[in-house]
Amino acid sequence: MNMNFKIWIILTSIILIILFGGCIQERNERINQTKEINLKFNLPYNLYKCKLLPQEQKNSCYLDVAEVFKNDSLCEFLEPCSEYNLVACKDVCYLNLAKLKMEISLCDKIKYDPLKNTCYAVLYKNIAFCKDDEYYDADDCYYEVATTTQNQTICNKIQDKDMKLMCYAYITKNVSFCKNLSELNKFNCYNLIAKKTGKISICNIINYTNEKFVCYADVAKATENISICKLISDFYIKNICYRDIAKKEKNYSICENVQDKILRDECYLTVFKDTGNPLICERLSNREWVDGCYKDSFKIAEIVGLSVCEEILNTTYKDRCFFGIAKNKKEDSICEKISDKEIKDGCFFVIATAKGDIFICEKISDKKSDVWNLDSRDWCLYSIASDKKDISICEKINEEDIKNKCFFEVVENKKDK
Question: What is the pTM of this model?
Answer without folding.
Answer: 0.70
